[in-house]
Amino acid sequence: MNMSGCRPRRGISGCWSRRGLVWGEACGRNDEENRKKTREAPKKLPLLNVEAPPGFEPGHEGFANLSLNHLGMAPIHRPPNIPISWVVKSDWLGKLQIMLSVVIIAKNEEDRIGLCLQSVGFADECVVLDSGSSDGTVEIAREYGARVIETDWPGHVAQKNRGMSAARGNWILFLDADERLSAEAATEIQAVVTRPARYSGYSFPRLNIWLGRPLRHGRWYPDRKTRLIRRGTAEWTGVDPHDRLAVNGPVQRLKGDIVHVPYRNFGEHWDTVFRYAAIQAEGMKAQNKGAHVWDFTMRPPLHFIDAYLFRVGLLDGLPGLTVAALGSTHTFLKWWHVWRGRNQ
Prior knowledge:
The protein is 33% helix and 21% strand.
């Protein structure tokens, strides 16, 4: 087991040592020493005796600037980037339990996967399924302490179910490489996975950042997604590329955002509209779904009206207008592909 969890990348953020929090290059110089001490640590670890970070107030039940009253619980008393299992009691044999696994699917994400892994530095293990990256994605993931599985690409649903099987934690959190946890979401997760389980899964609002602009209206927010599940209670379903977690049991809503940066530029978004429409249409045809003329003539304008007017995407300005128009274009292409495939 990776005792250090998903650790911060050398030289980018801080690390914890006997002297407290060490930043930057000082952290990098002590990295090998810290890893050696970690390997030599006893199997049954006591609560860590480290200096608390700013904002952490034990007398006030955790971080003073984050409220978890909506969960009926307080944050755990643990400094950042220390694996959860270090402060959760071990089993009767003294073996540390893997409380939280993070599963990430990736391909050619060297510019984004670092921020994703940084945001889950508190996890006990990170599993990255890489489907043939030709850039530095694999190397960066390993620098952060992730367990990398290099594999083929069977599709979104099959790949995420494959990652679920590879994870060893009692709880499993799913992220894409272009996503990262907000501070509030990270604190909520650390609270719920260390308490007796009341729910089978947890959902999060997803805040999409489109070309540098957060979208808080329209169809792109809250864009709620179930991403944290208790082992053995869920499986990935849906039609590629639109997967979803089917959870057997109650799902609780959390408040912290998952931050999503889906496109690097407009051209990438435009290409994705066409590619995803074709993929989704093939999946619909495989399920023997048909289409009528009204599907590709009426659904697109209805999509635009819903996104831009009814869900007030207009409040996001020009980005809101553009995203609503691109969504309408995707709707047209998807249904047109299905109709053409059935009527050729």
